[in-house]
Specification:
CATH architecture of the largest domain in chain A: 3-Layer(aba) Sandwich
Largest interface: A-B, 59 and 45 residues
Structural class of chain B: alpha+beta
Radius of gyration of chain A: 22 Å
Number of helices of chain A: 8
Distance between the termini of chain A: 29 Å
Order of helices and strands of chain B: EEEH
Structural class of chain A: alpha+beta
Oligomer: heterodimer
Number of strands of chain B: 3
Number of strands of chain A: 19
Helix content of chain B: 10-25%
Largest sheet of chain B: 2 strands, antiparallel
CATH topology of the largest domain in chain A: Rossmann fold
Number of helices of chain B: 1
Radius of gyration of chain B: 16 Å
Shape of chain A: globular
Number of domains of chain A: 3
Strand order of the largest sheet of chain B: 2-3
CATH class of the largest domain in chain A: Alpha Beta
Largest sheet of chain A: 5 strands, antiparallel
Distance between the termini of chain B: 29 Å
Amino acid sequence: MTVLILTCEEDVTADMVVVHLHATGVPVVRVDPADLTGGVSLSGEYVHGRFRGHLSAGGRLVSIGGLRSVWVRRPGVPAARAAQPSAWLTEEAAQALYGMLRGSDARWMNHPDAARRARHKPWQLRLAQRCGLPVPATLITTFPRAAREFAERYPELVVKPVSGAHPQDPPRAVPTSRVAPDTDFSAVAFGPTLLQRRITKRADIRLTVVGERMLAARKATAEDADPDDVDVRFAASGSPWLPTDVPSRIAPGVLAYLREAELAYGAFDFVEDSDGTWWFLECNQSGQFGFVEVETGQPIARTIAEWLARPVPVQPSHVNGSDTRVR
Amino acid sequence: MQPFALNYARPAVELEAAVPYVYDAGLQLNVLRDGRVAACDSALLREFGTTTSTAGSKTHFDD
């Protein structure tokens, strides 16, 4: 059975996993939905109560019924590179591709429905709270007065995008940034604003979870670090990422989070305070892992490959909703 | 009228540097000019930052 990888050609991080799958002889088909209907073709028929579907890409043909897993990595927008792309064609291609794949018995990393829900940062914060993970005091509001009152309660604040997305017109980045206590919050009225108590950190933590395997990396904060350098993605690279253990009080919460979120993969960001407490910031359902593996040597790509290569569990057949197993 | 968070925006850094590998549809992998698999070259991956968590990505925000 085949592993289907939905990603773009330039995704060299996916390559790290493909290398392991090749080494173990597991069939792989790599598809970028953006290449529908050029280099990628599909067909599926629903006849006599059965479904038969196929995907073709790069000269490879795979049966949808023959998929053991689907890895949604960095897929392009469906049909984006079609001869005559349009929003309508994108929707048609997305419905055809993902609709057919949803009907397969393959295991997903991660299922599109779970992935879509898991991208909502406010939902992440609430789920983390429910799972017992420490969450910094956070306010999401369009009320300037609420923001001012929050700043009085928590003078050390950061602001970050609610969605995690960045504006593209023109292209800009909005890093997590420190907010001065005397800031004018009137512009909060013009867009939902996420304010969060700034945790004085002694390290950033990247916890990559594949299935139930946790691989944590820690990047110590330099003692002379500028306190305004809140966002590790934008700070000058100082100390390296190093493997670290997951605290016993954190591990169950992380696994509960993934279980509740129905995710097979998650890249968690925490900050570690001076007491050693890990504070939950977010969980990226398709977060990058290559940079961690390159620096730490942790076998993340191999672990993903092993997860994807697992056989599909035997599904009991159903007819009109009834279990047909003989008991 | 600008949302509050955009007061902290900065120009996005575009990673447009040409990478020294191309996609090989036969292997389903990116390969270097000498035929080696790019993903097996850790030094190269580190240099080009192509596996890094990149805030400001145009197409993805699952960093």
